[in-house]
Specification:
About 40% of the residues lie in helices and about 30% in strands.
Length: about 80
């Protein structure tokens, strides 16, 4: 089972989209500074999580949320 997730930086409100089989562990990694692309913008807060049946489907949804339309949808989620 895989999940697509979106996290928002509490430092500058940027949004990061990723996929993982364990979202809670991955969020801890982001907040601990283990992820190069997110360590300068911590702390992070989970704003969206979606379950996918496999990694392939999760990757398709991840690409959507990284697109313009998907990113705008995530930005509309209240703080």
């Amino acid at each position: 089972m895989y999940f697509v997730y979106a996290i928002r930086s509490q430092k500058d409100e940027r949004i990061y989209v990723g996929l993982s089989s364990n979202v809670q562990r991955r969020l801890l990694e982001h907040n601990a500074g283990y992820v190069f692309s997110t360590k300068g913008f911590k702390p992070w807060k989970l704003i969206y999580k979606e379950e996918a049946i496999n990694r392939k489907v999760a990757r398709i949804r991840e690409k959507y949320f990284k697109s313009g339309f998907g990113k705008e949808l995530l930005k509309s989620i209240p703080l």
